[in-house]
Amino acid sequence: MEEKQIIVRVEGVKKTFKMGKQHVHALRGVNLEIYTGEYLSIMGSSGSGKTTLFNMIGGLDKPTEGKVFIDEVDISQLDAYELAWLRNRKIGYIFQTFNIIPTLTALENVTLPMTFAGMHHEAATEKGLELLDLVGLGTRHQHKPLELSGGQQQRVAIARALANDPAIILADEPTGNLDQRTGEEAIELLRTLCRERGVTIITATHDYKMLNVSDRVVWVKDGRVEKVEKRDELSISLGTIGEKER
Amino acid sequence: MPEQTSRTGFFTHDERHRIGFPWSKSFDFAVQNLRNRFTRSLITMSSLILAVAFLAFILVNLNIATGLVQFGGTEFASILSEMGFDVDTALGTVTTGPKERWIVLLSLLVCTVGIINAQLMSVTERFRIIGIFKCLGALDSIILRLFLIEAAIIGVIGAAIGAAAGIAFAFINGLFNFGVAALILVSLFDVFISFLLATATGFALSIIGVLYPAILAARMEPVKALNAQH
Ligand SMILES: Nc1ncnc2c1ncn2[C@@H]1O[C@H](COP(=O)(O)OP(=O)(O)OP(=O)(O)O)[C@@H](O)[C@H]1O
Ligand SMILES: [Mg+2]
User: What's the ipTM?
Assistant: First the structure.
């Protein structure tokens, strides 16, 4: 097997939120290595710190302690331009809460990152339409988010994440608002991107169905990594989980 | 990876990797924002219109009074003095009395606070969108620019409308108090200067009002902006 390249390295990351006198320890020292081109699922119950970890990896928030390396570069050392470039080109985000802009149409939402990247209007529109087609929203591109269902909004968010062909896609519960079928389609799409284009997929979930497509699963509990499992080890522990749930 | 010349060796600042937002796009976006939030923009603008109208009214009133004193003769001078103006017949100049000046200053101050407040609201209620922009790779300067363009558009339109309204009102007021003489004797050049002065003041207020909250918003960490309550 060829040597695996590390694309994301998380080193002793802690995050503490101060809420008045109370301190919320969302992350209590996370160490994690993510390889180029793998499909990684982060599992954990609600409030375990998945979204917080994503924000750290994506350079959207700063850790209280510890470091995040992308391509072996400490992202806390990046200047404003580099950070913007990272967010714009290197990483595609699919947020738990979609975060699409309500005043823009589906198409405008998808082309926004391309505009930041300096793409010409026609080229961006063409690519935006392609991406919306890809997520099955080709005919709805002129609609504003409020005229779309939750699942459709989620798919706009997925299309937007693909806008600048990112090397990493951070997907925070991408199927949370989708029904069984569209959910599976979305996962299949991510899976295909991973397999065919070598995109690194990092996705958070508490949906066990998403696990069998993952190369590895990271179990997070209470702000710590509990265990990391490869896919072949997975069936065993999944069996036990299945029993526990029953 | 391109050749590594940046501090961190992460990427170069070459053309292919520049982050930007063309001016034409910024302008379109600002106009679209104003249109989408039409009522909100009107409220922001109305405080500006009121302030500028008031300022223009005061200025043009003085222009009219000056015209009357210079070309209308002494009878107007005494009427104006009675109305609270400081009239200097020898020099032919008219200024507002100290009490009026104080009232004008206070009123303008109140209006300024109103404008700043309206602009502050217009930024804070869009923290979330700013957060999304930043998550997608917008530079601070892009966000700042969007708000400045918006403020400039509101500033120009609002100030021009306000100044025109203020002048019209001053003319009507002059006509009512002094008859046609007010309109004949006033120097149109002075009125034009007053118009420019009032418009420029309104424009500046609009920009100043938006500057502080916009800088604050542009500098926020993306996640903070996303989760900001307003
Ligand atoms: N901005 C914040 N201020 C204060 N506390 C926060 C903030 N963001 C997250 N937390 C806290 O940090 C912990 C982890 O939150 P996080 O959103 O990362 O969980 P999660 O694993 O994504 O949960 P879910 O599956 O429900 O999305 C929670 O206890 C939460 O209350
Ligand atoms: Mg979450």
Answer: 0.90
